[in-house]
Write the structure tokens for this entry.
Amino acid sequence: MRLQLALNVKDLDAAVAFYSAMFGVPVNKRKPGYANFAVESPPLKLVLFESPDASERLNHLGVEVFEQEDVSEATERLKAAGLADLVEDETTCCYAKSSKVWATEPDGARWEWYRVLEDSETFGTPTPEPEANSEDAPKPATCCG
């Protein structure tokens, strides 16, 4: 198990250089607008989203586990406490297919308890196309609560 910290950053290249030096590890996964680090000590999954216009630096928090039973236990615990906002089984998000449960803490920070099942070449599951004759432009892929 390791904690996850997902940050919105203005300049992904600068952030990758900084966190590589800070934790003394290379980037684990790098895609357009996205990077993550798998830090062993302290156990941390650091995720960076290039989002120059984000109003908050904190994107979300998480707990990465390595067994499906840990996700199932967290899901049941959060459901029993009335805290589970969203349960996602085998969803694609952040260039990975994963199973997860989401909760929101009292001050609004989003938490995910998740297990990565496999890597993906896409960032997330595309949102549905707008209806015909809609003036709305197609929405990009979204994920992470």
Observations:
- Helices lie at 12-23, 68-80.
- The chain is about 15% helix and 40% strand.
